[in-house]
Structure formats: C-alpha cells, structure tokens
Amino acid sequence: MNLNITGHHVEVTAAIREYVTSKLDRVIRHFDNVTSVSVILSVEKLRQKAEVTLHVRGKDIYVESDSEDMYAAIDTLIDKLDRQVLKYKDKITDHGHDSLKNHVVES
Predict the structure, then answer these.
(1) What are the pLDDT tens digits along the chain (107 aa)?
(2) How far apart are CA 56 and CA 35, in angstroms?
(3) Long-range pairs for 39-42: beta carbons < 8 A, 24 or more residues apart
(4) Domains and CATH numbers, the chain
(5) If you write DSSP's letter for every residue of 15-45 in order, what string do you get?
C-alpha cells in the first residue's frame, strides 16, 4: 500500500504523520484491497481541513472533514472513511444473496 500525506499551509510533523498512520491502520484492517491512500491536511483561515482519497480495486473513496482542531478533523475523517469502507465491502461481498430471503413462497 502506498501512503502519501501532504500539507497545505500546515507542516506535517512526525506526530501528525504517526497519528494519521495509526488511525488509517484501523480502516485498512477492515479491507485489505487498498492500493494507495492520499491524505491532504490544510488550514483555511480558522478551519483545519483533512481529506483522504482511498484507492481500492474498482473504486476511489473520497472523504473530507473540517474542524477547529486538526486532530478532531482527522478523527471525524477516519470515522466517515471507516463507514464508507465497510459499506463498500458489504456491497461487493453481497452479490445479491438476499434475494432468496425476500422471496415469498405461496402454497
């Protein structure tokens, strides 16, 4: 997996890089088909913004979050990303097997 963390108008320190990496490990543990991850951390006036693009086979998942604190923005970003990854994983592993449950048998 290729991980790219960049900062716009903010310095990406070792502490922030380690924090993002540890949080992303939780998401990637759910889904092992991740090819690359691109994280952009930026500051716009008083808002701290974090955005991520997760490249998986067949789809790119994009999530963004902003807050007054960079760590809070990263936390909400990871929560959103986790929900989207689990939703995508369920979608690709479902393959329409629920159609038998919805079938009504008349006698």
Answers:
(1) 789 999 999 999 999 999 999 999 888 887 778 889 999 999 988 899 999 999 988 889 999 999 999 999 999 999 999 999 888 888 888 766 555 455 555 55
(2) 6
(3) 39/3, 39/4, 39/5, 39/6, 40/6, 40/7, 40/8, 41/5, 41/6, 41/7, 41/8, 41/10, 41/12, 41/16, 41/70, 41/74, 42/7, 42/8, 42/9, 42/10
(4) 2-91 (3.30.160.100)
(5) HHHHHHHHHHHHHHHH---EEEEEEEEEEET
Structure-block tokens of residue 50: 């974090």
The full length of the chain comes to 107
